[in-house]
Amino acid sequence: MIKQPIGIFDSGVGGLTVFKEVRRKFPFEDIVYFGDTARVPYGPKSPRTIIEYSIQNARFLLQCGAKIIVVACNTSAAVALPELQKILSVPVIEVIEPGALSAVKKTHTKRIGVIGTEGTIRSGAYAEAISKIDSEARVFSQACPLFVSLAEEGWEDHPVTKLVIEEYLTPLLKNKIDTLVLGCTHYPILKKALMDFVGKGIKLVDSAEAVTEQLQKVLEKTDLETSGTDKFYVSDNEEKFRLIASRILNKEIETLINVKLGESWYLT
Ligand code: DGL
């Protein structure tokens, strides 16, 4: 039997929220994670750049032998999914469709809020995915670009985070939503502060959980035996990644390697 890992990528630490769920659900799968910490954030970048980076990330994971690519970055999924699907010969799982599905299942009032990066919100990908599932659902969107920096900084409990949440979410809550999609994989890092602000009446959707269901379906079709090892690659700032990862995953990560992606790739 060949041992091939599941490949997961994000612009930084955000995709670790997806990694955590995948690892919990599939303890015997090998996983390779790539966080593009040298080029984070993706949210404010142009579609062309996001597509280029996403392709490089996915190709790197293929070089690592990935049998499935999980795009654990909403911005990449919103902007680059068609290109990724075109060039990749392995199954591609992403976060937007599962998140949209989960939101439609959770809402009673059909008034759904979506927060994400500028790139994700500008793309309209969530509104489109939700209306495909339920054309009566109304979607209210808000880009929250500063959340990524707060999460990358590890400021989950910082007073500044509370102020920024209030600033972004106060207008959104005026739309009387009953469900809020965390449309960026960095945002679950701020989940506690977000829940405290929106209150119990609003259900949060963290697409990491929904992603594992899709992954399960694909994995059923692959019969490759693996042994449950983790390998992490980042393109910069290993120590900072290590620190935030230990907080998100509640454990120290072992194998962490710096890799540069670009025109000439090299491993250090
Ligand atoms: N975590 C990513 C997402 O889900 C990207 C955040 C960023 O790099 O701006 O959209």
Instruction: Report how far apart the termini are.
Output: 30 Å
Bound molecules: D-glutamic acid
In CATH, the architecture of the largest domain is 3-Layer(aba) Sandwich
Largest sheet: 7 strands, mixed
What's the helix-strand series? EHEHEHEHEHHEHHEHEHEHEE
Can you tell me the CATH class of the largest domain? Alpha Beta
Order of strands across the widest beta sheet?
A: 4-3-1-2-9-10-11
Task: Give me the secondary-structure category.
Answer: alpha/beta
Count the domains. Answer: 2
Count of strand segments:
11
For the residues shown, what is the average pLDDT?
93
Query: Would you identify the regions where 5 or more consecutive residues have pLDDT less than 50?
Result: 264-268
CATH topology of the largest domain: Rossmann fold
Write up what this structure looks like:
The chain has 268 residues and is α/β, with parallel strands linked by helices. It folds into two domains: 138 residues, Rossmann fold; 112 residues, 3-Layer(aba) Sandwich (Rossmann fold), CATH 3.40.50.1860. 46% of the residues lie in helices and 19% in strands. Helix 4 packs across helix 6 and helix 4 crosses helix 10. The C terminus is likely disordered. Bound molecules: D-glutamic acid (DGL). The site of D-glutamic acid (DGL) has 16 residues, from helix 3. D-glutamic acid (DGL) binds next to helix 3.
Blueprint (SSEs and pairs):
Blueprint: E1 6-10, H1 16-25, E2 31-35, H2 47-63, E3 68-71, H3 74-87, E4 92-94, H4 96-106, E5 111-116, H5 118-123, H6 125-133, E6 138-143, H7 146-152, H8 159-173, E7 179-183, H9 191-198, E8 203-206, H10 207-221, E9 230-234, H11 238-249, E10 256-260, E11 266-267
Parallel strand pairs: 1-2, 1-3, 2-9, 3-4, 5-6, 5-7, 7-8, 9-10
Antiparallel strand pairs: 10-11
The protein binds D-glutamic acid (DGL).
